[in-house]
């Protein structure tokens, strides 16, 4: 099981360590530092590193390495999932997960880690339960605590942990009962030079914010549940009911949670909402190149594409770029060779474009790799897969809740090759 | 007002100040002080001096303060064991607290304090907590048993906690079940032999029920535990699969992968014709694809596992090629893994797409990745023949880019393509030669030199090209030097007239001026070959080369099967069995996939049940200590007896305890069927006579050494006793039967540094009374690195004891160094006697007489012989064909054989001309032997 945890910042300092069994010396991290040195970038540090007596499993998030030490054969995904859960919990507790925040709240961090694992076995990882055990710091509470001397630690038994619905605490009360569901889809795609789709898939999630009194039992049905053939559910969803009727039936956790995530694979036809027209050319033994890109809407079901951002990593040989955008602002960083163009909204009548010239290192042959264009965008009120919620019903409680469904499509890893 | 202030108090006298605060009367001050202490502790400052003061704060109603003190205790108790005792009373009291949260907290913390004195006091509270009315306390206590076991395993066993823990598997609360399973799994890891998790259908049912209701982490433990279970038949396997499948939709990727492991393993038992099998295959793909949209670290582990799954069952993901396409901002470790899987999935159907992608990758920035992409193109060419041409032209395009490392990689893979498809793509050689100068890596240079040498006759200036390499001969790496030597010799053999000088130059460079023994040896060999017999040289050097195999990097099937059982673990990430890297490999038990029992024919025969077939194919080495059979140890290993007297042996035959039953009934039945009375007592001396009567050990040595031209099939020798386990003595061997006598052909190899002598051999009692008929004669002492071949004659008059498996033979070998024990399985056909041909009438009568429940059916797969060849082949091993019938195009062979102890086995072999698998029905009064007879059939027919 999980032996120890080390938190390491970008400059290679271990700023927190926690041991759940016997103490493992910090020096074990030297193996990690070696691997870190070999990797060109922090993202490229391999997640599993063997050492003579231990294994180091790490995740890199928010510019912090979370390095878990294990001693025996443990499923690595178990450890990595747990580490991600630790990060999510910190974020949930402190708003952001950063070195400063962790240091500021080191005692709470310690208490939380202690509650999350017992002897390396996960104990309480549901944020609902954790928050009942250890209250997250708020400005108000910190002030009150310093004056009155009360504490962060709850003094009741985490009742939820014993009930059949461990994810929901009992005795929840709200004056305004409301349930909001956000259907958010991210589209991952690779588009080739000629504009045809090489691969495209949709990662969708339904995030919920449920603030309902008592023990509500909800059902959510879809117009086209057929789309969801590859889904991962929150433990609260009754799988049998989904299998037989394609209806989501569940007693929700209190507050924010992810109800389900789904995946619409490359095989189903995925609509591509935007296109990029590009003309990038470098000539041999010439110090100038041409650069021109235009972005336009494609299959958007009449909705506006907004929040468009174009980034592209230029080849090393590019010295500078002189460009003029028809709208938005652009920056080229000559050190990292990163071009980014904040486009904003796309107006279908007047397509945004960015044109100009590229100055290259003189005397060298033209760069052999072509830049890939990375695209970000948002479309409100649209789930690009076509998923639509049919109805939401509540049983088990008398009051009438306020219900809301929102749709949004975003670009995930959306890449256009040139 | 944040905790960061605790980090800044570095002024002098800090400890002193804290001490004062800790002893303050004000609760608030106390707590602040403890917080400061904890903060100092977390950043690695030594605050152990405050131990007594902190422990004093423990008795409080304030839960937070209590927890903080507990945190401190866990950290420092080890360094202050005597002080820690002070805390025991409070712990014991807290374990009785009315609040279950406090009870659980106390027992949890106590388990974390790794001090012997404290653990003694822990036992009683722990016992109570394991039976607590509150499930939260029980589940915490379950984990505590594992903690305690880690500190003091003996104590846990003595106190009977393991049994209590096993009882918790049947607890009503799923969380408790999950934690009990987790704790038991962890304990079992350090106790490989113990049957802690002895699963049976009832407990499996409990686990499956708990699986639906416990937390995600609990599900992982339960699934991993389920994966170790061996269902008794395909129906049970299917029902477990059905109940595990919903886990594939879990949000936690570790749950998904553990579920995949269970399914992949149990699927092995399902028949491929089953509808459910197809459904399951379809259900496996989406969750695997979904894993790839998770965070990169998770993707990496998932990809390593998918790599195994794709090799085992390519059909699952064959349509999902696109999800493995690389995004340019994937971390490098994800990119490389995706690439590997792309090649594994490449087929004629998708090769165009794959190639286009690979070409795209070859222009990326990351050098390692580009290299691997270029290699991948070569591997595609070798794997998908139809695409070879397109791959070659893609590689040529890449060579045109003139990017140095791309060109070098391309040349290395083109060499492989030449070896796979000789005389097809040589037109590109000219292009390759243009890039000769830019090659600076040894592998690329060696590849280019190989190409030049291999196709010297088509390259006009081959001699010039090779000569140019020769100039810097001594600066080249060994790889290049060896290749250059061979290439020039090839060139000389092809164009002898112009290149004589060149070849002399390279030979002298290699033999006279080089320090490298490999190079020198190869040089001398060529030199001598060329000077003595140029024709022979031509035949040797320019011999036709074997084609390179399709995929060289596939994991070997047995390893793959083992790794499939380890999906989701570190072993699957490293693609190595845990024994290869787990520390001390103490807890390593080899796992294997269950055999398929689903097919309709074999399902009828109980003999193919998992345990039987799996009976270690490998000869097992008996450990030198442990549960050795007393008999074996008591054996006198001095001068071996030259064969026990016949009289006693036949008495023992009557008392055969395994075969006795069969023998008795056979005799009884024979009497009833009218006139058929096999007489073991008469047949026995007949075939025993020769080896026994005359101790002609030497004669048998000869026949054994010559090999078996007319006798029954002899399996190739396998290593029975590896040198590692026997202080340098390696024994390999096989069994053979020749004209009525059985012998054990041995090769003894001395891999130690000292001379070995005084060899002796002895067998333990075994099912058929096999015993050495002569002493083990090793004439001269065995010098280091020497080996000797010996044929040891055997008889079957030794004492009898039923072994499991039936054909297991335990052997002890002694030499001047020590006594070594090993066990091996002998093929049953060495026991088939020469007079095993039954009369037709008798056969019919006996066949009818043996009850039907004694009949066993087997499939002999992939055998392409016709009926006549089969019968002559079997006859060689004393299986006699009595009659042959042709029914509806099928050949039916009726056969009989007799074992040395007089047991008859009757067989019906059904051969369909179009079908490579035969059906074998065996009838015998001692049905235990059927399975081994079937194995003998299979070995004989397949070799």
From TrEMBL, chain A:
Record-linked Gene3D superfamilies: 3.30.450.60, Mu homology domain, subdomain B (2.60.40.1170)
Entry GO CC: clathrin adaptor complex; cytoplasmic vesicle membrane; Golgi apparatus
Compartments, record wording: Cytoplasmic vesicle membrane; Golgi apparatus
Similarity comment: Belongs to the adaptor complexes medium subunit family.
Domain (MHD) ranges: 176-417
UniProt keyword list: Cytoplasmic vesicle, Golgi apparatus, Membrane, Protein transport, Transport
Pfam annotation, one family: Adap_comp_sub
Any one GO biological process: intracellular protein transport
InterPro entries listed in its UniProt record: Adaptor_comp_med_subunit (IPR050431), AP2_Mu_C_sf (IPR036168), AP_mu_sigma_su (IPR022775), Clathrin_mu (IPR001392), Clathrin_mu_CS (IPR018240), Longin-like_dom_sf (IPR011012), MHD (IPR028565)
Superkingdom, natural source: Eukaryota
Organism, as annotated: Dromas ardeola
Protein's membrane topology: Peripheral membrane protein
Entry protein name: AP3M2 protein
TrEMBL record, chain B:
GO terms classed as biological process: intracellular protein transport; vesicle-mediated transport
Stretches assigned to the Beta-adaptin appendage C-terminal subdomain domain: 832-942
Topology term for the membrane: Peripheral membrane protein
A Gene Ontology term for the protein's cellular component: endomembrane system
Keyword Lyase on entry: no
Domain Clathrin adaptor alpha/beta/gamma-adaptin appendage Ig-like subdomain, chain residue ranges per copy: 713-823
Keyword field: Acetylation, Membrane, Protein transport, Transport
Region (Disordered): 586-618
Listed Gene3D superfamilies: 2.60.40.1150, Leucine-rich Repeat Variant, TATA-Binding Protein
InterPro entries, alphabetized: AP_beta, AP_complex_bsu_1_2_4, ARM-like, ARM-type_fold, Armadillo, B-adaptin_app_sub_C, Clathrin/coatomer_adapt-like_N, Clathrin_a/b/g-adaptin_app_Ig
One Gene Ontology MF term: clathrin binding
Compartment annotation: Endomembrane system
Family: Belongs to the adaptor complexes large subunit family.
Name of protein: AP complex subunit beta
Species of the source: Calidris pygmaea
